[in-house]
Amino acid sequence: MNHARTPPSFTTPSSRVAAACVATSPSCIPWRSDAAHANVALGNRAAAERLAEEELRDAQIIGAPRALGISLHTLGVARDSEELLREALAVLDTSEVQLINVRTQTDLAVILRRTGRVEEARELLRAALDSAHRLGAVPMAVRAEAELRASGAKPRRARLTGLAALTASERRVAELAGQGMTNREIAQALFVTARTVEGHLTQVFRKLDVPSRDGLIDALAA
């Protein structure tokens, strides 16, 4: 008699909240993706794939890039599918879900490295590592760096704080803000949205450890 047991399916707090509120739309709470990743970790890929397929079906009906990208990434992980992960990256490139984009790049790179396409994997991992550092996503940066080292590369240790941690765009926004320009004026000068300027300034304040624009001039001069 075969006594092998199928690993139990796993639910997450968000999935139980969503179920209680009858919130099944992935654009509201992508709880099935959370539960699917948990099931993958437990070795229950059948349950993970079922949850991911359900969420992708609903996301395709909604058509929102964020929901579609997240569900494609989840199903790609559940199926270990290069094709689905590439499709997720294409969708996420047009959305604002940058952290999911980093995770997708890393997951795709793992598949590429495993199938012998090391150089392509390294390129994705370097991009993922750079984005993770820029976003301050330390756990994701640690994973991307570990995978990069596993590919045989020797990544340089990135700076998470200080002037060296600023991207070119963040540095330019900081300089203009330090000159007294408002967010709207900076946005017009750089041909970006005010929301983009706000995002850059948030990162600038964190990386330079200054509470407001008043400290930017001294921080940049230093």
What labels describe this entry?
single chain; 222 residues; mainly alpha; Serine Threonine Protein Phosphatase 5, Tetratricopeptide repeat; Arc Repressor Mutant, subunit A; 2 domains
Describe this structure in words.
The protein is mostly helical and 222 residues long. The chain has two domains: 13-150, Serine Threonine Protein Phosphatase 5, Tetratricopeptide repeat, CATH 1.25.40.10; 163-221, Orthogonal Bundle (Arc Repressor Mutant, subunit A), CATH 1.10.10. The protein contains twelve helices and no strands. It has helices at residues 13-20, 31-41, 45-62, 65-79, 82-92, 98-114, 118-135, 138-150, 168-178, 183-190, 194-208, 216-221.
Helix content: 55-70%
Assigned CATH class of the largest domain: Mainly Alpha
Distance between the termini: 73 Å
Largest sheet at a glance? none
**How many strands appear in the DSSP assignment?**
0
Integer-rounded radius of gyration: 21 Å
Mean pLDDT reading: 84
Number of helices: 12
Which descriptor suits the 3D outline? globular
How many domain regions?
2
What's the CATH architecture name of the largest domain? Alpha Horseshoe
